DNA sequence: GATGAATGAGTTTTCATTCAT
DNA sequence: GATGAATGAAAACTCATTCAT
């Protein structure tokens, strides 16, 4: 009996716990859509509570203040974002396939989750970058971890002589990540730009083929 | 003699005008350093006035409100930034030299004007991107104009068969601009990263040489 | 039993609602006494809140801004004022009784509600007359409606040949209303003036008897 | 010599003095039109200076502060207003002619000098009535003096048995002044009201003839 | 003597957060 | 445990007034 209970309380969340988690998600979703649309400072806690259909007091039961809510949101979304992309890389064995799938999945996520993406970059480059130091440190760490995974792909490709050693693997990881982000962002902001590459391979080609005659 | 004087009095602003311009610059500099450090919403007009050593009322004599001050700041700095980089490209004739100089000057500006850079990207990706619509449109236009100049370099390089046609010139402009920004930003934020390329040529190599064996 | 309860719950406001209404009244009373004493522009929202013993934020929960509070105050008081006077007229059947009671009640209200009266005329003739256009229009309408009622008394008195037709009924309404207001105001402002008529009948006599020998 | 000088300085103002007086008038006229249109609190000293085409500092050379300017304006206009009306009364000998001319001239002034009238009543009933105590006292005194003149007309009319003694002369003065003001104001604010008496005699008739059959 | 740039006290309003019910 | 009324600190902005040139 007690085992059962313990087990339940540890692994299978109780109905109450599941309910709580659901409410928390509702709040975070409301906050996400509002923050993404109007920016952190232009969203009030009342708006979030009201959009999530909770009382303001209830919102404060879940998050001790606005910053806390924002941090939780950013961190959870960032984690999911990085996890999905890291997974995409590990799905294949061949290095080129790994890069291709990374670009493909990253592109899909960008298109499907614009609000999260907006918020993520708004946090990374926006006005909060200097304040909320811990948050930035945590995001930075996750980003570095991801870059290591991506660098690993280049490294193993080089070891197998599939890639030329035009730059350190880590540098190439930064470069590919940067290029792809820039292209994806551009598609968001300049949907009319017809010269942008259609598919991930085209992006990859820029890195792979080299420009020099 | 009189001609000289008249000429001077027409072109060179009067003492009063010069004084005004100086004050305006002081205010913008104070605002720049504060906005760059703490972000638009975390800076008060009193702080700016006090940092610039003016009374609050004087600040409002120069800028009709906070947004107006911010827009003036962003626009003037953005213009100077783009102008300096465009000029760097046009300084040379050879396409490779042009790209190299672009990267060199951009890097210098990044290192010498960190606050402006912070502010620029904070505006481009931060929470203001959706509000202050006109401002964003104006920045976008300047950016597009600059991209055209950069694309022109790739295009002429291709015409002369100095560059391979691995992608449309405009796409390459986006790519090179993106990669270089990413590297420069990374130097700001991860000064300890030893693997980052030291010089512009290394960045260029990534694009030029191609990764594929 | 249940019917009774339901009925009560529908018609009689809940405790919360009554509490709200009470607070609102407290705020309006505080505002009335301050506006009446010092005028709209010389009263701050903080003063009102503090006199009503609420926090400034609470005041703004009830009235969306200072103008809104002022309008609500003027309109509600004006309505009560006009309603009380109109009622006084309709209390009697005889035309002379109606006029007498109108003057009597108007006088009582003037003496008992000096602040409202001050505010009412301050609004009607003071500096707000040109700004706050809707408010003035609404007050004007209520005044016109009241004048029609008063004119009706003169008209019916003329039909019954109780009054001579020395002027159109509406003109007489304006005249009587004007004279009585002037006298009442004078009692407020020149309490020492011994020649002013003591009772309503004396005022009425001026209109009724005629000056010409 | 000295006599001459004294005489000149007292009676014939020097060119400088005349110039000064002219400037002062320009400032007061600018202030009048602005105050009358927007009310005391909604007009800035800069507006007045700029409308009068003077520097703000010059305005302050003539009036030590905003209140001072306002008081001077009100007082000078009030004096002129009362003087003109008092003069109108004294122009005739016959009591009825005196009243008729009073009403005629008062009406002309109302129509020709709407801004002054607005300002006068805005001061008398508006929000300033309680503050600016001296100003109100001075206006009150002038008004009382005028009422005495008007009361004198009724008194002499009664002595000659031309008027019935339906009320003390002073009371009748208040009444006639009140009625006429009310009618004139109504013409300003309700220009469409067709029932209002066209000429002074009609107004007078209301007082003279009596309503009682 | 005229000017108008500079000043800063004072006002309205918002919104994160608390806590009694 | 949820609620939402109440709080008040803090921010943008205005404008009467001064005084150096």
Describe this structure in words.
Chain A has 10 helices and no strands. By secondary structure, chain A is mostly helical. Chain A has 2 domains: about 10-65, Orthogonal Bundle (Arc Repressor Mutant, subunit A); about 65-213, Orthogonal Bundle (Tetracycline Repressor, domain 2). In chain A, α6 packs antiparallel against α8, α6 (about 95-110) packs parallel to α9 and α6 packs across α10. The longest helix of chain A has 27 residues, at about 135-160. Chain A is elongated. At the A-B interface, α2, α7, α9 and α10 of A face α2, α7, α9 and α10 of B. The structure holds a DNA duplex (21 and 21 nucleotides).
List the helices and strands and how they pair.
4 copies of one chain form a homotetramer.
Chain A: H1 2-10, H2 15-38, H3 45-51, H4 56-62, H5 66-90, H6 95-112, H7 114-125, H8 133-159, H9 169-189, H10 200-209
The structure holds a DNA duplex (21 and 21 nucleotides).
């Amino acid at each position: 009996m007690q085992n059962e209970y313990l087990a339940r309380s540890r692994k299978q969340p109780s109905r109450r716990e599941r309910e709580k988690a659901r409410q928390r998600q509702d709040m975070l979703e409301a906050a996400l859509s509002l923050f993404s649309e109007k920016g952190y400072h232009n969203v009030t806690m009342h708006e979030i509570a009201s959009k999530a259909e909770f009382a303001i007091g209830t919102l404060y039961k879940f998050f001790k203040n606005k910053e806390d809510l924002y941090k939780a949101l950013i961190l959870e979304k960032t984690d999911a974002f990085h996890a999905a992309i890291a997974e995409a890389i590990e799905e294949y064995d061949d290095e080129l396939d790994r890069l291709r799938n990374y670009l493909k999945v990253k592109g899909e996520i960008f298109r499907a989750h614009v609000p999260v993406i907006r918020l993520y970059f708004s946090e990374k480059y926006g006005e909060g970058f200097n304040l909320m130091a811990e948050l930035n440190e945590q995001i930075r760490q996750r980003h570095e971890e991801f870059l290591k995974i991506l660098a690993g792909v280049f490294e193993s490709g080089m070891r197998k002589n599939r890639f030329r050693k035009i730059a350190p693997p880590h540098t190439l990881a930064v470069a590919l990540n940067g290029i792809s982000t820039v292209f994806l962002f551009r598609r968001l902001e300049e949907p009319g730009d017809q010269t942008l590459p259609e598919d991930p391979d085209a992006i990859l080609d820029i890195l792979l083929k080299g420009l020099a005659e």
